[in-house]
């Protein structure tokens, strides 16, 4: 998988980074998603083997210039994962903490949702599990989120489910603290699975689903 660096042009040069396909017994371990951390220091990828991989993202001008100078303009510079974490099920969504910066280690984390598993909060240094957030449905069974996002200030986690958005307090692992039911079977509203979520960077409490 190839992806452009956050700042592609640097002193008249361009740089393209490539994450090679990890080996797997199945023979085809395609990339299912990739995210840059907000400060550009880390790249998080997910492949078909349900393993999360963390890569250094060349976030400073000096590192980016060195790669641009040493690589061919027509080819991508490979980057290798420095940490991995297995989720145990197909990864459905993942995102970084909105205030992520290497200058503040407690902010270096991300959340993931995978099939038949709770929402996981992991650190971005080794991929270690920090907290778990368990979504409960209407019949009090644990279910999985199809989509994820943080609130603007990073204090809450939002998960998308069938006709429902569930909220979790980052500081209180476990059960959700609030449900937004968007539709009922017979009523009007947004029906179906909430497959995408986004928090507005300009207005607290405003979300798109």
Structure description:
This protein is mainly beta and 209 residues long. Helices cover 5% and strands 43% of the residues. The protein has one helix and 18 strands. It has one helix at residues 61-70; strands at residues 2-10, 13-18, 31-36, 42-47, 51-56, 77-78, 81-86, 91-96, 109-114, 119-123, 129-134, 147-150, 156-161, 164-169, 174-175, 178-181, 198-199, 207-208. It has a five-stranded mixed β-sheet, with no helix packed on it. A four-stranded antiparallel β-sheet has the order 3-4-5-7, with no helix packed on it. The protein has a four-stranded antiparallel β-sheet with strand order 12-13-14-16, with no helix packed on it. A hairpin with a 5-residue loop joins strand 10 and strand 11. The longest helix has 10 residues, at 61-70. It starts with a strand and ends with a strand. The model is unreliable at 4-13 (pLDDT under 50).
Uncertain residue ranges: 4-13
Tell me about the biggest sheet? 5 strands, mixed
- Spatially, the strands of the biggest sheet line up as 8-9-10-11-15
Query: How much is the radius of gyration in Å?
Result: 19 Å
> What would the average pLDDT be, to the nearest integer?
85
Number of strands: 18
Reading the helices and strands in chain order gives EEEEEHEEEEEEEEEEEEE
What oligomerization state is this entry in?
Answer: single chain
How many helices? The count is: 1
């Amino acid at each position: 998988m190839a992806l452009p660096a956050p700042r592609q042009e640097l002193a008249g040069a361009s740089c393209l980074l490539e994450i090679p396909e990890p080996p797997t017994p199945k023979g085809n371990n395609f990339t299912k998603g990739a995210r840059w951390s907000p400060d550009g220091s880390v790249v998080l990828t997910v492949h078909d083997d349900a393993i999360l991989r963390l890569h250094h993202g060349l976030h400073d001008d000096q590192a980016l210039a060195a790669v641009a100078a040493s690589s061919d303009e027509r080819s991508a510079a490979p980057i290798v994962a420095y940490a991995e974490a297995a989720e145990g099920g197909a990864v459905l969504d993942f995102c970084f903490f909105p205030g992520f910066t290497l200058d503040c280690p407690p902010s270096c984390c991300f959340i993931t949702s995978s099939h038949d598993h709770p929402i996981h909060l992991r650190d971005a240094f080794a991929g270690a599990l920090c907290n778990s957030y368990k979504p409960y449905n209407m019949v009090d069974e644990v279910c999985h989120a199809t989509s994820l996002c943080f609130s603007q200030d990073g204090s809450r986690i939002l998960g998308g489910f069938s006709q429902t958005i569930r909220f979790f307090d980052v500081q209180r692992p476990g059960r959700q603290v609030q449900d937004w039911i968007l539709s009922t079977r017979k009523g009007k509203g947004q029906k179906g699975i909430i497959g995408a979520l986004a928090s507005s960077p300009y207005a607290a409490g405003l979300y798109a689903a």
